[in-house]
Amino acid sequence: MSGEEFESDMEYSDDDCCYEDYYNIEEDCDAEQLDPSKTDPEYFLYECLTVEEVERLLNESVEILSNTLQITPSLAKVLLHAHEWAIQDIIVKYRGDSCKLLVMSKIKPPHPPESVASRHLRHQVCPVCVASQSSDMFSSLACGHLFCKDCWTMHFEVQITQGISTGIGCMAQECEVLAPEDFVLTLLSRPSTRDKYQQFAFRDYVKSHPQLRFCPGPNCQVVIRAKEPWAKRAICNLCRTAFCFRCGTDYHAPTDCATIKKWLTKCADDSETANYISAHTKDVSLSDVNDCPRCHICIEKNGGCNHMQCYNCKHDFCWMCLGDWKSHGSEYYECSRYKENPSIAHESVHAQAREALKKYLHYYERWENHSKSLKLEEQTLQKIKTRINKKVMNASGTWIDWQYLLDAASLLAKCRYTLQYTYPYAYYMEPGPRKELFEYQQAQLEIEIENLSWKIERAETTDRGDLQNQMDIAEKRRATLLKDFLEV
User: Fold this and answer.
1) Is residue 248 helix, strand or coil?
2) For residue 471, is pLDDT > 90?
3) In what residue span(s) does the RING-type domain sit (predicted)?
4) For 37, 79, 367, 443, which has the most beta carbons within 10 A of its beta carbon?
């Protein structure tokens, strides 16, 4: 594309468009209402719950365990939290064995109880504040370690201030006994502190439950529930945040959770990324400005498409490699593939290190380039909305007539997002037939995405049928790659 393809007389807001919206088009475009579990490789069942609904769900489990084992609800919560809410496992483990129940839950039997009369006749010294008080001013957990109530309260308040709730334990040195909820609440008098404790406890209960995951959206209170905790896409029905259910981070298919974590950690190392690239690399793919490889006129990249056309000499070239675009239309899109050096194992250590960095930069530059393209294509989507609005105002059709343009832009972002996350996956793949198949499918997806981006940026002159056909091809390429390589 040239730097003058669209006018730029409008303001762009990040709030107008978000990645999560890109997934809404499937429901609108698929008139055949096919079974998504068979047609969508990213599909899995989940539901969005409110805080009240989650509390009811958790309380049901507490009630079942409490009634079955004949224990207090507070002890039931301790056990459920420690055993990831696996009710049947807890019942099998502890039914009919109260001693085992106490020991395995880290709650030890208390010392033999004293009579009320003898307790009031005695005074004790608190090990923390060294104050002598009557025995009725002391409390202990099941371990029997006695402390005055004021010290217990101060201990709880300090722990809660630090965000700790279910992990609050006995004050005695090396004692691992945890404080049940009823014991803590009995000694907390401030309403604000009690509320904080219960909020933190609720947070811990949700985090320990394998079927529950907090929505990572800003200030969102929704909790996602999925009975099968697969590493697949979940979308909050309130804030529309899309994320990986298994790890809670940005959705990253086809890359698995462990690999994306390793990749992001590597990218955060400045010595390997930004500092080295800015100081040494001659690759221009991460720049927004470059010279045309034919006439050398300066060109600014103001769209997401990597198929560039010089507005001066009309030369078509690839932004990533600066090669002639005609060579990218062949069956194998070589630009995305890294060509391994077969003899590198016999080279010096320095040469191997240089080759490893070269390989990393190849994948990093393409990862980062598609990230930038996504941002630029969000701006393209806003420009399309502005143009449609003008057409509607001029009685040139309705919003429904032009909806296909929005669908195309949304699908493009959806496909490019998947393409971006294919690069960490490819970087860590071992050489072999499976990687060759992956690189082939990655290349096919990339070329179809660039074709779609090219046509969207020229939407005024692109035939509607041609554009919709390109949408279908791009989505099929994406679905095929995910179906073959998305790990669950």
Assistant:
1) coil
2) yes
3) 122-339, 295-335
4) 79
Tokens of 417: 């997002």
- Secondary structure (3-state) at 270: coil
> What are the pLDDT digits (tens) for 195-217?
999 999 999 999 999 999 999 99
Over its C-alpha atoms, the chain yields an Rg (Å, rounded) of 30
**Beta-carbon count within 10 A of 237 CB:** 11
Residue 244 pLDDT level (bands cut at 50, 70, 90): very high
Q: Which two tokens stand for residue 31?
A: 């008139």
Residues annotated as catalytic are 305
Is 420:255 a contact under the CB 8 Å cutoff? no
CB 25 within 8 A of CB 235: no
pLDDT at 287 over 80: no
Give long-range contacts, CB 8 A cutoff, 24+ apart: 163-170. Answer: 163/200, 164/200, 165/197, 165/198, 165/200, 165/201, 165/203, 165/204, 166/77, 166/78, 166/81, 166/200, 166/201, 166/204, 166/205, 167/204, 170/141, 170/143, 170/145
Is the Cβ–Cβ distance between 469 and 463 less than 8 Å? Answer: no
Cβ atoms of 15 and 218 closer than 8 Å: no
Helices (H), 127-256: 149-161, 181-187, 191-208
